[in-house]
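Thread: "does anyone have the structure for this chain?"

Original post by V.I.:
We have the sequence but no experimental structure in hand. Need at least a predicted one for the grant figures.
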Amino acid sequence: MFKKQKSLLFILSIILVLSFVFTACAPKPTEAPAVEPPAAEEPAATEAPVAEEPAAPVEREVVKIAFIGPLTGQNAAMGTGGLNSVTLAVQEANANPDYKYTYEIVPIDDECKPEVAVQAALMATSDSEIIASAGHYCSMTAIATADTFHNNGMANIVWGAVLPAITYGNDYIEVSRTNGTEVEQNQANAKFMAEVLGAKTISILYDTSDYGKGHLEWIKHWAPDYGLTILSEQGVTIDQGDFTTELTKIKNENPDVLYLGGLTDIGVPIRTQMVKLGMTDIPFEGTSGIKTDAFIEGVGPENAEGVVAWLDGPPLENLPGGPAFKAAYDAAGFKEPPEAYGPFAYVAAQIIITAIEEVGPDRAKVAEKINVTDLTDTIIGPVKFNEFGQNEIPLASAYVAQDGVWVYWPNSEYASGVRKMPGAE
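Reply from O.Q.:
Generated one for you, tokens below.
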């Protein structure tokens, strides 16, 4: 019994051992590889368009231009009109994207005084950044500075002064002029007095400055050609104030015309004193020097009535570019009128700017370029400088004070016969 149990136990032990062996030898199951779920495809990143920055404006070199004229005193209206006109030309140039340079004006007051003008010219020429100048309304200042501009090699284009010697009295390439001279103006004046007013005799008052002496010279030159007899010629000065002696002499002479070679600052007191002396029956004729709004304002519209004055070239509205210039001038917002010589100052600035654009901001080259100016298209018509730097401008035009404004003679009621000139029957 015990042996049977022992045998049974032995068999179970064997079976148990074998089961462990088979279990240990059995191959292990292969684990399935882990499969990651496919990642969702992300859309390709789209780069935001880069906005193109506008090209930075090219920084243009600044070039300075001097303006010289009377900005204070009796002739300040003419100077201010000239400065405004030059400013307009510069504004238009600076707005032009095709131009190489940016222009800046340096305004300098010459007070219509020679000694002040020389200092003004020295101020301009000593500034190396100033390349050229549009300078002078008054003849006495323009002639006084000619040497200064020449000696310092800077071009100066005169825009208002009419003394012939400013250009014809030297061979300086630095000095030129857009407006006409006393030569043309007095020829037209003498012809007008003889043929339109029917004058045979004239009495002359003249400012003893170079300006007035120049007018005296040329009215005396032309008077015989038109059958005019000069009864007297008397020099007067701006600061004398009282012209009773000179006017009384003329009153006794009873000329057909009293001719004045002088500016507004002397024309106003002379005309005022003529009225006080009862000389309103003598026609009063002046030069371009009194063709200003300031003259009419100074004597009053009533006392100005019938006074004749002159201006180089045709009136603004008859200039080739006159209406366009006036429209641009008004649009620019200037409070003061351009006055008689504003268009000539405007063209002077344009000539300077054109020269600088062509040859660069070099004083010598600019002066040379200006000296040979020959333009066919400006607001005052063709501009051609002769060998003296003088613009060959048409004859001067007559104006008459009518109802408080200057009226181009052919358009006036005096020309049509509706009104009679002083002393006319």
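V.I.: this helps a lot. The mean pLDDT is 88.
O.Q.: and The chain has two domains: 61-180+316-384, 183-311+397-416.
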